[in-house]
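Re-run requested by the PI after the first attempt was lost when the workstation crashed. Everything re-entered from the original request form. Ligand of interest: adenosine-5'-triphosphate.
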Amino acid sequence: MIKVQGLSVSFGAVQALRDVTFEAPTGQITAVLGSNGAGKTTLLRTISGLKAPVGGTIMLNDHSLVRLRPEDIARLGVGHVPEGRGVIGEFTVEENLRLGAMMAKVNLREGLEEQYECFPVLGERRRQHAAKLSGGERQMLAMARALIAKPSALLLDEPSLGLAPLVTAQLMQTIHELCASNNLTVILVEQNASSALRISDQAVVLHLGSVVANDAAGVVANDVNLRQYYLGMVG
Ligand code: ATP
């Protein structure tokens, strides 16, 4: 479980997060939604130690994450798949996965086997440069590179960005299955609210750095005001 309490983050005069509080339970998907500039990316970067907060606490089970270095937070079991996926295009699929395993010091052969079993298309393309993959395949590679480290929590930043609706639907189904089969704590940042809400257990809606809703995904999905004013969902 990840528990965020009273979290505030600033970039100089810009307050990106204000007093943000929510819980992301183990084995469930928590969607973090909101328009451009709402603070979604900043929230994930703060959880994984890439940005220091000015106040508040972040707990991964019994461990406080605030003021730890990103590599120590990763070692405690937080995997971060950044916006834009962060895979290295000049490296092959397997070299990208090796990098993920090396940082986490896990058994490489076992880790690769597990990921190729989970994502067969990556096994088929193991010797191809990552730059040659489709957007959906690159997103799978980014997730596999995080999963090879055997995290207990997975932070996903806009996984559907730039993907066609059908590919997005398949990817969301994969995220749902991964969460259930690995008992992961998933925090799913998305601008594509309807796709994220379909697979999430609960949702946190941010607006200008503040939480404007924190409820079951079904409740958020059916709230006309949230849909219209904060989620850009018409109808
Ligand atoms: P998007 O979907 O566009 O990425 P977001 O919800 O992820 O939006 P953030 O990127 O977290 O939002 O930005 C939140 C606020 O913090 C915005 O006002 C943004 O301009 C500001 N901000 C983010 N990163 C920086 C930075 N490195 N320097 C200065 N301001 C920043």
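Saved to the shared folder this time. The chain has a mean pLDDT of 94.
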